[in-house]
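Below is a filled-in request sheet from our internal design queue. Each sheet records the structural input a requester submitted and the sequence that came back. We keep these sheets so that new team members can see what a complete request looks like end to end.

REQUESTER: design group, bay 2
PRIORITY: normal
MODE: inverse folding
CHAIN LENGTH: 416
BACKBONE (tokenized):
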């Protein structure tokens, strides 16, 4: 492609892409079939070894509400959390987040003067661009969302400190601390420490720490992440954080295991309300995961194979964007070291039209604005790219269509 494309040349290439009749869906960050195949042996992990836990419990039956001890130990070792403070669920950590927030609204959390639902306008701080499912849960439960800017080090802690110091109805913050969705940021030590230590007017302020991509490194030597539970305890706020994680993109998204952890009192609160909801999780699946993943070394080797499959996809997107958009002043994008997304910013006011043009050419993307509370990007510039599911040829086509759509809108709006 010429260094300085004309509007006519871009329009011609875009029309040619439309004529291909593409049907590519990049709306969500899903593992591809090759990644799922890595966990095929999980299906047979119980065969021959039986259905008894290490302690001799029959995993086919009811009970063990908090999860198998060996599975809690596995998660604890991987995340640096005492196993006795971990409660296991089934495949979706989002369900555990919903449970925690819905119970906070219904009855409050430990230390609440009243249920959150009895506040006039309970609020949750939402780093943005961020994870749309977090926003959906908050909106459904009637929690007002306040967007917080985020950069490569994490959310703007100065802005957070001002809000929590002045408004007792600010009840919590959602965080994706490692390889944030979609920016790819990993929170710096300073940000983690400040979030744990800051003084809040609400005595029941909570950090919802969604460590969804804890193990999802694209490259060796990942940036470390401080333990939010340790930092909260050190700062004198031991009950402040709930930590969530899962194996959804480690093994099978539809058949993984999830976890939530907190302080000792936070765990007791979790166990109490969970006991009213269920009489036991899928312990056979927990047993399979322990036998399949084994330990930290086994998990690291497994995730390295994931990285071998998806790293070329992230690098391909960056290559195509550089070729098509680089040095033209119409877009910038992240170059994450892990996680599942690339965050792209167009010029102001261009994202929605670019996504619409890409869809017209057969490439479906996450709706522009979805990475902000209420689906409203105030600058209409952020687009989330999910590169993991398509094949490399499909991904090249999809990224070229997106780039052409951005160029076309940029010409139409006078940005170019």
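RETURNED SEQUENCE:
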């Amino acid at each position: 492609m010429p260094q300085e494309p004309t509007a006519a040349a871009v329009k011609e290439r875009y029309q040619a892409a439309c004529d291909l009749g593409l049907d590519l869906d990049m709306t969500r960050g899903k593992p591809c079939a090759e990644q799922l195949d890595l966990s095929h042996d999980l299906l047979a992990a119980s065969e021959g070894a039986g259905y008894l836990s290490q302690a001799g419990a029959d995993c086919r039956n009811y009970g063990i509400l908090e999860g198998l001890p060996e599975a809690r130990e596995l998660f604890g070792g991987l995340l640096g959390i005492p196993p006795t403070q971990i409660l296991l669920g089934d495949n979706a950590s989002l369900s555990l987040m919903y449970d925690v927030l819905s119970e906070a609204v219904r009855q409050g959390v430990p230390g609440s003067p009243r249920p959150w639902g009895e506040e006039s306008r309970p609020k949750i701080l939402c780093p943005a661009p961020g994870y749309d499912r977090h926003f959906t849960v908050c909106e459904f439960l009637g929690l007002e969302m306040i967007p917080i800017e985020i950069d490569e080090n994490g959310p703007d802690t100065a802005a957070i400190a001002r809000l929590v110091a002045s408004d007792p109805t600010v009840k919590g913050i959602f965080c994706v601390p490692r390889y944030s969705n979609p920016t790819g940021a990993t929170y710096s030590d300073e940000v983690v420490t400040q979030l744990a230590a800051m003084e809040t007017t609400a005595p029941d302020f909570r950090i919802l720490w969604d460590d969804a991509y804890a193990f999802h490194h694209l490259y060796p030597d990942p940036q470390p992440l401080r333990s939010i539970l340790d930092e909260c305890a050190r700062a004198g706020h031991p009950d402040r954080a709930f930590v969530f994680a899962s194996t959804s993109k480690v093994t099978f998204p539809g058949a993984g295991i999830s976890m939530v952890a907190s302080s000792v009192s936070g765990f007791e609160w979790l166990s109490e309300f969970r006991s009213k909801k269920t009489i036991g999780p899928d312990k056979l699946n927990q047993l399979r995961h322990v036998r399949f993943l084994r330990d930290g070394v086994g998990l690291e080797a497994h995730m390295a194979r994931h990285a071998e499959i998806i790293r070329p996809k992230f690098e391909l997107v960056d290559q195509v964007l550089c070729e098509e958009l680089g040095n033209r002043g119409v877009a910038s994008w992240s170059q994450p070291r892990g996680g599942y997304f690339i965050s792209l910013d167009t010029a102001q006011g261009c994202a929605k039209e670019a996504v619409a043009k890409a869809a017209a050419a057969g490439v479906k993307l996450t709706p522009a604005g979805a990475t902000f509370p209420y689906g409203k990007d105030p600058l209409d510039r952020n687009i989330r790219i999910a590169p993991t599911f398509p094949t490399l040829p499909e991904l090249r086509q999809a990224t070229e269509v997106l780039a052409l759509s951005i160029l076309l809108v940029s010409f139409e709006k006078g940005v170019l």
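SHEET NOTES:
- Residues 132 and 318 are 23 Å apart (CA to CA).
- The chain has 13 helices and 13 strands.
FILED BY: M.R.
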